[in-house]
From TrEMBL:
Entry GO MF terms: carboxypeptidase activity
EC number(s) per entry: 3.2.1.17
Domain Peptidase M15A C-terminal: 274-385
Keyword Ion transport set for record: no
Source organism of the structure: Phormidium yuhuli AB48
Pfam family, one: Peptidase_M15_3
Catalysed reaction, written as an equation: Hydrolysis of (1->4)-beta-linkages between N-acetylmuramic acid and N-acetyl-D-glucosamine residues in a peptidoglycan and between N-acetyl-D-glucosamine residues in chitodextrins
Family: Belongs to the glycosyl hydrolase 24 family.
Keywords for this protein: Antimicrobial, Bacteriolytic enzyme, Carboxypeptidase, Glycosidase, Host cytoplasm, Hydrolase, Protease
Protein name in the entry: Lysozyme
Keyword Kinase: no
Top class in the EC scheme: hydrolase
């Protein structure tokens, strides 16, 4: 998720200060730290990078889970979501459908109005007062948010082109399933021009695969561009074997160090059960070049090996390493995947709900897992990362 507007209008203070209502604040308007302790007088941050990490944590934990409840959130693209996030960060995460926010609520509930420049600017421009007084800073912020929202309304998320995806890639149906033109509807609600039945074992060559909001939106669906001019179709990820989810296992006992991995070879192992192709989704844009990121990938891969051994069957990777430009493209928070220490996955066999429940009971609740645990079974994945211990629902 793009936080440029938030950073611009909040400003960055590395030393704690009292805000207008007497609350000690630091960084980009944060009042709590990663461990949930409160900011106190005399506190200092070491750098803007540390302030940004704190900002992203706050957004991930306190804002996005609430904003995702907006009924039309999944219809917004990255720019529109960033504009709404900035609005919420300034006026409160729970603004939607609450008293005093009738106009912005109606606008967000009316996608047909999102291209109406005058209406978007009018609605955002209503929220420029504090204590009955109009503040120039709020006027500028609402205008910037409206401009970003309108910019988003005319720019669709680009489908990855053939030059961005390895040649010869295929998707294979793991069960009887459907390809659909509208992810939000059941196949039974679509006519034959909007759906295509796919039998178990059927495969298709693909030219592109759009991860945009794969983990958190579209109900576990993703958009694939089929080869041979067959067009773009939504598929339910859990029903398909994707090119980078081929089961893998090393046949030697020596695990490679981060500087021994051939990061340009999809089959090069990063651990016993996972390889570079799974880390990068066989995408040249995702090859990690930063040594720290490579080390993080190796670290979480070894831990994922332990999860895989405990579960007793292969795990399919939905998404792993996403460099910043990829993270921005897919609408991620920027807090985990760009650093290599986060992975979203699902079981190749068995119920994802069972895996999520058992992991929570036997790993998270017992302290065996000391990082982040995102419960996303309802969207077709489980999230793990190596930041501090915390748990949340998607």
């Amino acid at each position: 998720m793009d936080v440029t507007l938030i950073k611009e209008f909040e400003g960055c203070e590395l030393e704690a200060y009292e805000d207008v209502v007497g609350v000690w604040t630091i960084g980009y308007g944060c009042t709590f730290y990663l461990d949930s302790s409160t900011v106190k007088k005399g506190d200092k941050l070491t750098s803007e990078a540390e302030a940004e990490e704190l900002l992203l944590h706050v957004i991930e934990q306190d804002f996005l889970p609430i904003l995702r409840r907006i009924p039309t959130w999944s219809q917004m693209n990255g720019n529109q979501k960033a504009a709404v996030l900035s609005f919420a960060y300034n006026l409160g995460a729970r603004f939607f459908a609450n008293p005093g926010f009738d106009s912005i609520t109606r606008l967000l509930n009316s996608p047909e109005q999102w291209t109406d420049t005058a209406e978007v600017q009018r609605v955002f421009g209503l929220y420029v007062k504090a204590g009955g007084q109009t503040f120039p800073g709020l006027v500028r912020r609402r205008k910037a948010e409206a401009d970003l929202f309108l910019k988003g309304s005319t720019q669709a998320t680009p489908m990855r082109t053939n030059s961005q995806i390895s040649g010869g890639q295929r998707i294979i149906a793991l069960v009887d399933t459907w390809l659909k033109k509208d992810w939000s509807k059941q196949a039974s609600e679509l006519d034959d021009t909007q759906r295509a039945f796919v039998g178990k074992g059927k495969s298709y060559p693909i030219q592109g695969f759009c991860e945009s909001s794969l983990e958190t939106e579209m109900g576990g669906h993703a958009l694939a561009q089929l080869d041979h001019n067959a067009g773009e179709w939504y598929l339910f990820v859990e029903h398909w074997q994707l090119p980078w989810t081929q089961p893998f296992e090393m046949h030697t006992q020596t695990l490679p160090e981060w500087n021994q991995v051939n990061w340009k070879d999809w089959s090069s192992p990063v651990s016993r059960y996972f390889n570079v192709g799974e880390v990068t989704r066989q995408d040249w844009e995702r090859i990690p070049s930063d040594a720290t990121h490579q080390q993080n990938i190796i670290k979480i891969a070894r831990l994922l090996d332990e999860v895989r051994q405990w579960w007793g069957s292969p795990l399919y990777v939905n998404s792993w390493y996403r460099p910043p430009h990829i993270e921005q493209r897919v609408g991620g928070t920027g807090a985990n995947h760009p650093f290599g220490f986060a992975v979203d996955f699902r079981p190749a066999k068995g119920s994802i709900w069972d895996l999520q429940h058992c992991f929570e009971r036997e790993w998270y609740n017992t302290g065996k897992w000391n990082g982040g645990f995102g419960r996303g079974a309802n969207r077709g994945f489980i999230h793990l990362d190596l930041r501090h211990t915390r748990i949340w629902d998607y």
